[in-house]
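INFO batch 0412 | record 1 of 1 | parsing
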Amino acid sequence: MSDDALRLALVVGYLALAAGVVVARVNPSPGYDASIYASTPFVYWAGFGLAVALGLGVAVFGRRVTRALGVALAGLAMLTFLGLPFLRGTYFYGSGDALTHLGLAKSLLRTDFAFMDLIYPGGHSLAIFLSEAMGVPLRHGLMYAMMTASVVSLVFVPLAVWAVVPDGRAVGLAVFTAMLMLPMNNISTHPGFHSYTLTTLYFPFVLYLTFKHITRGAEDETLPEWASAVSLVAPIALGATVFYHPQVAIDVLILLFTVFAVGYVLRRRTETAGAAGATGTTRTFDHRLLTGQVLALAVIFTAWAVQHQQTFIFAENLTNSVTGFLQTGEGAGQIAQDRGKSADSLNISLEVLFVKLFGISFLYTLLAGGLVLKEVLGGVLRDRSGDDSEMAVTYIGFSALTLGPFFAAQFVGNVSSYFFRHLGFAMVLIGVLGAIALYKAVTEYGSALSGGARVASVLLAVLVLTGSLVAFYPSPYIYLPSSETPESQFVGYDATFKHQAEEVPVAKVRIGASRFTDALTTTVPGRLLWSPNKTEFDSIENLTKYRENERTDHPGYYLVVSERDKGREVKGFHGIRYQREDFREIDGAVTPRLSRVQTNGDYRLYYVDQEGLVNTTD
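INFO prediction complete | emitting tokens
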């Protein structure tokens, strides 16, 4: 393909992306929608898709500068995708844990508690810094913190690959891999503010520093032989991992110790073979060991973790879960079983759900597994130390033997949700291996591909990227609602809590209103936060008789009904617990027992009068 045609493709791609961004920006979301994909204008998706396709195409057919511009176009398109909540004018993107983290960040900013009082204050501190530096609300600071971590992943996954495979083609393939956002699974890692997810996205930076150090890619003649320029900043980067989330720090510590142990064994093996003259040639092992990094992280983690009660609670829960499983053989993968039951209730094949959530990750796992078998069993351990890329594969391959049991231990009992967190972490390593595997395949077979085959490879890449990104944001496609929380919710709950009568409970579907007490830093006793289940919500009669508990004597309660709840339940969760008719019946009810006392359009508060219907004196 001629250079002129490639330049024209770049111009068209950049213009299409710009047009899509402008249209998305000038057409903000009017309110809550269960799918950010459906609510975003088609023009944006057309511009995004065209930019990605042309960017990848130019990267495949171009050379040097042109290839770099193609990769940059695809990467820029990915940035706009990650920034969709901002483009859509979202008030706050996040629900569940993200609302609690918003409240924690507010409390930290107001110095209600100190940095040392929170076990993972790093992400909240980053959000506060971004909020203050950019002059934006703190809720946007949390959103920018997640986007910053995503950009770190986009940049340092390719750089980590480049550190061991200094070839532009490898970097391009690693950029594509990073664009897939493989760590995101929407079970235990989320695009809304989530400390573990943020730390996982930050981890590629630590991996890049690790590779630069062990491969002697950052030499400084003024330093001792065992040190490198990056080793001077390693304690800061590793310490940040602890402050962002200690669970990720445990994963990193296990990984670094494995790399150290493998390097130590191979160095001794090489020295022994050289001394014995077994090969007839001089053999050397040039990689540095990670002695200092392992010790630094171990000391920082231990010093930090022992100060927090959550560390001992986590250790106790993990121990009890593993012990219980070994004794009874029950409890494995409880969260997976729960997802399976939910899928069955909607007549959804669990296999289809797996493909949607993990299909692309599974393909990369196959690539990574094949590469490990080829490099580790096929050569490095048998008779040679291997080049940097082969040694990187060896290090990561052996880390599966140490990280694997730790991850598996968290697939049982009441900590099974943690397994999918650690799976997100593992996907960073698998992504790096997958990118190296693709590079080796391109190096070996790429020159033999015809023009048509290259076009087909671009189309395949676009399909793979689509299959991954369509499951990045929660949406009805993966049987989840959007995590957006509109302004009406904050305003509505704030007014409710401020004017809440003494001892009157507040009820809300699914998990209750506790997350909003966190986000608004309001104190409401847990006994007054109710959540009616499916059968209690399906008729006015049941609602008027509903009592979550008898820990208040007040004969009645407040009931929150909102467009957000309706969209989440009916569209996002496909009516698995609550149906559209349930919400309609409440809004259209004419009964002296149900009175609307507050509304802002999207948020409606009813008072359910139970005087004479229930006994509150027992």
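INFO post-check: The mean pLDDT is 89.
INFO record closed
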